[in-house]
Amino acid sequence: MNEDEVVALLNGTLQPMNLVAAKAAAHRVKVVGSADRLVEAMKALDSLGFDYLHTITATDYPKTGEFELSYWIGSVKEDLKPHVVQYVFRIPKASAVVPTISDVWPGAELREREEWELLGVTFQGHPNLRRLWLPEDWNEMPPLLKEYKLKRWVEEERARHGLVVRGE
Amino acid sequence: MEEQSGEGKLTVSVGPQHPGSGHFRIIVTLDGDIVANAIPDPGFVHRGAEKMAEYRNYIQNIPHLERPVILDSSGILFPYVLAVEDLLGITDKVPERAKYLRIVMAEFNRIISHQYFLAIQAIFLGHSTQFIWSVGDREVFMDLAASLSGARVTFSYFVPGGVRTDTPPGFEEKTLKACDYMERRLKEYRAMMHENPFMKMRMENVGVIGPQDVVRYGCVGPTARASGVITDVRKDEPYSLYDTIDFHIPIYKEGDSMARVLVHLDEMQESCNIIRQVMKKLRPGPVKYVVKGQMRGRVGESYARTEAARGMMSYHIISDGLPEPYRVKIDTPSNRNLAVMPKLLKGLHLADLPIAFWSLDYWPVEADR
């Protein structure tokens, strides 16, 4: 199956939900969606053969005050194996609540715990939202937020070598 | 951590000292000597590699990002360079020789990592001969990798555009000799360790995972293939000329600790087979496309995946056009396999816990990043 056939397969089920799949790159299909339709979209992808959740990436965009969440879903079915589907949407940081998909894939539980801890996205209905990687006494902001700066000396060091300092 | 002691139950903290692989703890609730509940408690070696990567440019990230998995240092770099090449738009400029040398290095690293796996598996079973054999034979490939890259452990061999150095004189003969040696040794391993009835008794039917659970929990690599799930990125989405090489992926149906160990053994054999074929295909030529000036990715994102020693390793890199990546997400195989651990360990005898745990080839530093 090539990307166009995968897109056609996905659109057959996703279009009634007002979601559109499109080819993003070789072997990559992108579905731009929203947080409300996340669970039904994941169930639909699961039933179409994209049943193998790879990872979830949350990214902080302080300029627009949004989080972008990308769900990467692969497959173990012979003809879908080369392809990975990205389900992507943005949510405002002020109300960063997303439904959990850990009842679709139990493997998502750890992925969601990680994004909750490192970025502060809350996953509603998650059975076990507690610290995973950070120390138990961590009381600063989630470290992957752009506001959280690494130590001052890193930037001084970078300025000394003439490297661009990311301005925000 | 919830205490579940009392009424004949006892909660024990296994770890977080180094149980052969890195600092990691399992909170085990015992009922007699049966594991009633096992909660993995990772995070002792979390260093924020993803955050630090946002502060380094694409070249500085190469030695930085291989730190979480020094045992499989080219495994964690392979998808990184593929993603960066995509962002720089130089994917089709990588020379053929570089692509083949990448395969050689990746397979060397697979053998090095699998040998370490076999060594510690043997130690957990109290079999010190296999430990010494594996650690010793691992040196053969570490020396070869060192002759190629200049470093013994952290090779930093892959760069966006190709590989860092070409082969030294006499590399091909030495490599072919090493493959012959390894294949002979693998037969001896099997005769001494893996066909040994006592070792079989310790590993067969211990820690069984079914194919359904593999998919639902998202297990990867040898763990998935030992349960009959046919998944290997080298075949699924061939990268870097893996499609020009004839090899097969070992699959077992049993899903127990023994099957996972046997997958590792068979994969080492296949790696030797791959390296031999690559040696025949290597043609003289450049090994690197040199990117002029500061590397700046296009504004956009890239997702690349490869088959590292422990399974599928993937990178999601978002770039905003600056020399540093905007966001780097590393999805490591150990992190993926961690999800199934509570289910896998439940119901085992405490004495079987180390073997079942290690058969996942779980590397805490890789999972924590």
Summarize the structure.
The complex is a heterodimer of chains A (168) and B (369). Chain A is an alpha/beta fold and 168 residues long.
3D architecture notes:
- The complex is a heterodimer of chains A (168) and B (369).
- By secondary structure, chain A is an alpha/beta fold.
- Helices cover 26% and strands 27% of the residues of chain A.
- In chain A, the strands form two sheets. In chain A, strands 1-2-5-4-3 form a five-stranded mixed β-sheet, covered by helices on one side. In chain A, strands 6-7 form a two-stranded parallel sheet.
- Chain A is globular.
- Chain B has 369 residues and is α+β, with helices and mostly antiparallel strands.
- Helices cover 47% and strands 13% of the residues of chain B.
- In chain B, a hairpin with a 2-residue loop joins strand 6 (300-308) and strand 7 (311-319).
- Chain B is globular and about 70 Å long.
- Chain B starts with 8 loop residues before the first strand and ends with a helix.
Q: In terms of topology, how is this protein built?
A:
The complex is a heterodimer of chains A (168) and B (369).
Chain A lengths: L2 H12 L5 E6 L2 E5 L5 H11 L3 E10 L4 E9 L9 E9 L4 E3 L8 H12 L2 E3 L27 H9 L8
Parallel strand pairs in A: 2-5, 6-7
Antiparallel strand pairs in A: 1-2, 3-4, 4-5
Chain B lengths: L8 E6 L10 E7 L2 E8 L7 H5 L7 H5 L7 H16 L7 H29 L3 H22 L8 E2 L2 E2 L7 H24 L2 H7 L7 H7 L3 H5 L7 H4 L20 H25 L18 E9 L2 E9 L7 E5 L1 H6 L2 H5 L7 H7 L4 H5 L1
Antiparallel strand pairs in B: 1-2, 2-3, 4-5, 6-7, 7-8
Helix pairs in contact in B: 3-4, 4-5, 4-11, 4-14, 5-6, 6-11
